[in-house]
From TrEMBL:
Pfam families membership: DUF6089
Record-given protein name: DUF6089 domain-containing protein
Naturally occurring in which organism (per UniProt): Flavilitoribacter nigricans (strain ATCC 23147 / DSM 23189 / NBRC 102662 / NCIMB 1420 / SS-2)
Domain of life: Bacteria
InterPro entries for this protein: DUF6089
Ranges for domain DUF6089: 6-206
Length: 267
């Protein structure tokens, strides 16, 4: 085994790759902020280009698509089953930093890495109501668009992807295992925020369907104008993890040449 450290000579190279994996949600409907519930894992896939600038740094540009979902028993006086799902399409530009290299420099290396950057994503939250999936953003379930309430939230937003992975460099191709979360700047991935909502305002301003989806219990509790907060304690995130395969299309994937290896002898 050889630990390749320092600045190995490496030619710049370009790769094309594919991603296959899963996507996951965390937010207002979650029981735990970072809990893993296998029933909520949904397929995700993507394509990307990776531009190796040096032994240490690579820039990656890609598009990914997945779906997130959740079913939750809300706690407290407004307790009822609430569910949502949303397709997510993401365009991301990230930097990958290779932490170190383990293995032969001629035909195999294992490379732990971290990544971070920026992304633009599109989402469309839906809920299951009377056996049909209903898109929620146009309804204004929290009074969006009415006097005294926020404007409708945008379905295209920005995010900050951060994560880590392990890359297996095989020469002209590579396999990676990676997992990353997306820090969001919206609390409406699930259509739910901590805004204070008046059932009567939503009913009269945005219609009966919007009010029923906003809170189906509030309209039947006998209060003349019940108010409530739909949100939970956790910020919205989504996660994508999986396996990537990438192939060199110029410059040699590893770009390995002369360099100094520090570590135990090669077998």
């Amino acid at each position: 085994m050889v630990f390749a450290l320092g600045n190995l000579a490496r030619a710049q190279s370009t790769e094309l790759g594919i991603l296959g994996g899963v996507s996951l949600y965390s937010g207002d409907l979650s029981e735990d902020e970072f809990g893993l519930y296998f029933e909520n894992l949904k397929p995700a896939f993507g394509i990307f280009g990776r531009f190796n600038l040096s032994n240490t740094l690579a820039i990656r540009l890609g598009v990914s698509h997945g779906q997130v979902q959740e079913e939750s028993d809300l706690r407290g006086s407004d307790e009822y089953m609430r569910n949502f799902r949303s397709n997510i399409t993401e365009f991301a530009l990230t930097a990958e930093i290779n932490l170190f290299r383990i293995g032969r420099t001629t035909n195999f290396q294992a490379i732990p890495f971290i990544f971070g950057g920026g992304a633009v994503f599109n989402f469309r939250p839906e809920t299951l109501f009377d056996g049909n999936w209903i898109e929620m953003q146009p309804l204004g379930t929290e009074g969006q668009g009415l006097p005294g309430y926020e404007q409708p939230y945008q379905l295209t937003q920005i995010a900050i992807p951060v994560g880590l992975g392990l890359k297996l460099d095989m020469g002209n191709w590579a396999m990676s295992f990676e997992f990353g979360g997306r820090k969001l700047f919206t609390d409406h991935l699930d259509d739910i925020s901590n805004a204070s909502v008046s059932y009567q305002d939503v009913y009269e301003g945005n219609g009966e369907l919007a009010a029923m989806i906003s809170n189906p219990i509030a309209g039947n509790d006998g209060e003349p104008n019940p108010t409530y907060n739909r949100g939970g304690p956790f910020d919205d995130w989504y996660y994508i993890g999986g396996v990537t395969l990438s192939f060199d299309i110029g410059g040699g994937y590893g770009g390995r040449g002369s360099g100094r290896n520090i570590g135990c002898p090669t077998f």
